[in-house]
Design a protein that fits this description.
158 residues
Length: 158
């Protein structure tokens, strides 16, 4: 498995470079540069927009008492699409654009979840009571009153 990842990380940049050279010979320098810069700008916009949506989706799922696996997977794949678009290269751009298609992203998310979790069970536990200092919503815990005190029935200190 490690050898496969090593070969992937060595082969992918070489394939990207070879494709950029061939595209530059075929289309010319400026169109290829325009595609790389344009997809980089699109990737940056996607990454900026995605940041707060992840937190909102996860919080909504947790508040509903469900495991936030689907929103995390979807947001993670959109983030990966933005990162692929941000990186220079035509193969990464094509993969990033494919991940922006909701149907492809849904299938990719299901496949990824099956690979990562298999037959795992995810349990989300929620609590209806709040705890913490100054919280009087629980009836079994008396309220905490802060203040200074001095004992009057003992002998004064020497």
């Amino acid at each position: 498995m490690r050898l496969a990842f090593l070969l992937l990380f060595l082969a992918f940049p070489l394939l990207e470079l070879a494709l950029l050279i061939r595209a530059g010979q075929s289309w010319g320098f400026w169109p290829v540069l325009g595609v790389i810069v344009g997809t980089g700008l699109v990737g940056t916009a996607i990454l900026r927009r995605q940041g707060f949506r992840v937190a909102e989706k996860v919080a909504a799922e947790l508040n509903a008492g469900r495991a936030p696996i689907a929103p995390l997977a979807d947001s993670g794949l959109v983030f990966a699409a933005g990162a692929l678009l941000l990186s220079p290269g035509l193969i990464g751009d094509a993969l990033g654009l494919l991940l922006l298609v909701p149907g492809v992203r849904s299938l990719s998310g299901k496949w990824l979840a099956a690979q990562l979790f298999g037959n795992a069970t995810v349990v989300v536990a929620t609590s209806t009571t709040r705890t913490g200092r100054g919280d009087n919503s629980r009836r079994d815990v008396p309220p905490v009153i802060e203040g200074d005190w001095e004992r009057l029935d003992d002998d004064p200190p020497r």
